[in-house]
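Quick one:
INPUT:
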């Protein structure tokens, strides 16, 4: 999508195409957001440290350290629940950092959310978000395969 601004060609059809593209992007974001539970930084911090005084510090630090990602939805930043391990006091799932390293800077938060929420042929038609905690080696391998230019179908 061209981020340079409104179409100035004067073509009504290109304006409609742009509107359709925006609508499709919004629908895709909504589908990715509805694919799992998402938590605000405050919600994550409360689960990770229920007695701590600073509710935002940890998720922001984890994101900066490449251990988790987030998306902006509405007015808030949200973190994927599948990226947090309730058995480890809601610390990031260790394998998530490996997936994020595999993609490097090639995917922003929303593109990562799309990838995790989409069925993947490298995972026998399953979604990475469903396997991250239990079959993390396969999810990491699928991320490396895609990052290396091999597309799944």
């Amino acid at each position: 999508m061209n981020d340079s601004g409104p179409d100035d060609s004067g073509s009504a059809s290109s304006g409609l195409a742009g509107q359709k593209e925006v609508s499709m992007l919004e629908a895709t974001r909504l589908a990715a957001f509805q694919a799992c539970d998402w938590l605000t930084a405050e919600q994550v911090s409360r689960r990770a440290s229920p007695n701590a005084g600073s509710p935002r510090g940890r998720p922001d630090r984890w994101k900066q350290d490449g251990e988790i990602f987030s998306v902006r939805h509405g007015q808030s930043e949200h973190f994927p629940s599948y990226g947090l391990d309730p058995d480890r006091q809601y610390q990031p799932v260790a394998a998530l950092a490996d997936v994020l390293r595999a993609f490097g800077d090639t995917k922003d938060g929303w593109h990562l959310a799309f990838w995790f929420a989409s069925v993947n042929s490298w995972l026998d038609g399953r979604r990475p978000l469903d396997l991250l905690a239990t079959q993390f080696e396969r999810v990491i391998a699928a991320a490396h395969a895609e990052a290396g230019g091999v597309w799944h179908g």
